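Project outcomes to date are best conveyed with an example. Our students and postdoctoral researchers have been running inverse folding experiments weekly, and each run begins with a structure described purely in tokens. The record below, which covers 291 residues, was selected by the lab manager from last quarter's runs and is presented without edits.
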């Protein structure tokens, strides 16, 4: 049985791999009286791949009709469960649903979530960029003026910034970003997450921009731009260098040789990097669970 008797349930669907579907999502899709889907064709393809036959009513719920659908969905949510699903990932994250949630809250209808995949969180996790502080900025602005203003606002942002972008505009976005934020600004392009053609490209904006101009881009794209504060970038670079030294030592390299190699390649102080590695190893040995 579904875990709630009535109300609106925001249910996260797989980004690509159907095996990422939670048991809770499978229950909801099979048993909910109403499923409000951003694209009913994609929903029917998903339930087919999951081997599920919904017993409830499936209704279309997308940008153009979401406001007009609210009264019917609220009536249904007062008597039973209305499951809201987007094409992929967590509803409301640049997808329909926010007006329905606000309306349900205002009339006292329960709103809950069946958590699961999110392209924002998945991209952050694999990006190799700092994730202690981040911001999600929705979609990259389509036109030059607003896009330029958005990029300028990131110049001194101390957080990693995540945004969705069209594959058709990605090369232009990266060119503009490299020009405004500097070609050395760390960044990542995550494409087709969890799908057969998944691709994660990590580097600086200059390299990504040069690569983007030489190829055609397809699929769903997440763009991540690393922190702009010199302090944050320096801290991230040092942490990355320490990690590289530790990996080299695990592969048999002597510590001093590994430090010399990584420091020389990244323009870092050998003494400072050596001390940072010792501090990291000391912290690991004295941390939770240490003997």
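After processing, the design step wrote out the following sequence:
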């Amino acid at each position: 049985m579904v875990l709630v008797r009535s109300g609106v349930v925001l249910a996260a669907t797989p980004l690509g791999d159907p095996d990422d579907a939670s048991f809770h999502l499978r229950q909801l899709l099979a048993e909910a009286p109403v499923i409000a889907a951003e694209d009913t064709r994609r929903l029917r393809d998903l339930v087919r791949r999951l081997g599920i036959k919904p017993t409830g009513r499936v209704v279309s719920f997308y940008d153009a009709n979401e406001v007009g659908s609210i009264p019917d969905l609220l009536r249904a949510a007062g008597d039973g469960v209305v499951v809201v699903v987007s094409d992929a990932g967590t509803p409301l994250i640049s997808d329909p649903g926010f007006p329905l949630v606000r309306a349900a809250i205002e009339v006292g209808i329960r709103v809950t979530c069946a958590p699961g995949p999110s392209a924002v969180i998945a991209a952050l996790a694999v990006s190799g960029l700092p994730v202690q502080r981040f911001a999600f900025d929705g979609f990259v602005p389509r036109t030059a003026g607003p896009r330029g203003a958005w990029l300028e606002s990131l110049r001194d942002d101390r957080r990693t910034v995540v945004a969705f972008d069209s594959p058709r505009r990605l090369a232009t976005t990266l060119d503009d970003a490299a020009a405004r934020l500097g070609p050395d600004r760390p960044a990542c392009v995550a494409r087709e997450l969890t799908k057969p053609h998944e691709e994660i490209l990590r580097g600086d904006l200059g390299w990504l921009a040069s690569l983007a101009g030489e190829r055609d881009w397809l699929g769903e794209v997440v763009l991540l731009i690393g922190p702009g504060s010199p302090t944050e970038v320096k801290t991230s670079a040092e942490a990355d260098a320490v990690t590289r030294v530790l990996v080299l030592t695990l592969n048999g390299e002597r510590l001093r040789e590994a430090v010399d190699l990584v420091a020389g390649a990244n323009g870092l102080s050998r003494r400072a990097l050596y001390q940072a590695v010792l501090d990291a190893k000391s912290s690991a040995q004295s941390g939770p669970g240490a003997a």
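The chain has three domains: 7-117, 120-227, 232-286. The radius of gyration is 23 Å. The training component of this project remains on track.
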